[in-house]
């Protein structure tokens, strides 16, 4: 019996939930949520104005819960294909720990209260943007795009790029160019990051019938697209420095980090035609996470330093 056979069950069969707290936490996609929280923190504290600690905590918490709601609703809808993929077969619904109706109810409740809390306690621009983010991820990406087009990640990446925009609106009540730049960095980061994953998880996506780019266009076309999007990503990440929005420290770091991304993207592109995904692909996937976190960490660190210096001097 295979690993998938051992862990999956008939999702259509009625059953009693065996869920524990850990299973509901797993529904929130905590690893994805960590990126949502971190990029939202950067967007919040980059925004102008005084940042009241209670409003800051409320805003970040609501954005985190909204992201978790999106994850739960995504797992509710995709339980059938999750059961077919080794990467996702241990999720709570395929394992039979949580029923699909429970996941749906859990996700909807979290989505409602996160949006309403952010709107009532902070401002309705942020609340509306959070509602749109959840809608985009669940309806546009999960339901409308993922199973039907190889451009699912490209278009759907907008949802993952919105948290710093929501946080900026929560902090300032307005929008400006800085959160748009943060959005664009995450938006162009998403395709090379997820296509690198798709290259070495190609069997999973093929088995589940998900039209990821390697499944539809093949690995060689995917490597080319990864390289092209990486070029756009690096240029987009560096651009805020010469445009005067972010500092020279950020600009220098983005050049160094961008050189690392470009080197790994070229290494992936240079794989011989027909060569299966190898260590270069996995290295690009892993480094892309470091790349994005490092860029945003530098911006957050600058905010902290600027806040501390007046107190020191």
From TrEMBL:
It catalyses: heme b + (2E,6E)-farnesyl diphosphate + H2O = Fe(II)-heme o + diphosphate. InterPro entries: Protohaem_IX_farnesylTrfase (IPR006369), UbiA_prenyltransferase (IPR000537), UbiA_prenylTrfase_CS (IPR030470), UbiA_sf (IPR044878). It holds the Pfam family UbiA. One of its GO terms (biological process) is heme O biosynthetic process. It comes from the Bacteria. GO terms for cellular component: plasma membrane. Keywords: Cell membrane, Heme biosynthesis, Membrane, Transferase, Transmembrane, Transmembrane helix. It is found in: Cell membrane. Its EC number is 2.5.1.141. It is an enzyme of class 2 (transferase). Signal peptide: none annotated. GO terms for molecular function: protoheme IX farnesyltransferase activity. It is a multi-pass membrane protein. Pathway: Porphyrin-containing compound metabolism; heme O biosynthesis; heme O from protoheme: step 1/1. Its main location: membrane. The chain crosses the membrane at residues 32-49, 55-77, 103-122, 128-145, 152-174, 180-200, 221-239, 245-264, 284-309. Carbon 2 of the heme B porphyrin ring is defined according to the Fischer nomenclature. Converts heme B (protoheme IX) to heme O by substitution of the vinyl group on carbon 2 of heme B porphyrin ring with a hydroxyethyl farnesyl side group. Belongs to the UbiA prenyltransferase family. Protoheme IX farnesyltransferase subfamily. This is Protoheme IX farnesyltransferase. It comes from Tardiphaga robiniae. The gene is ctaB.
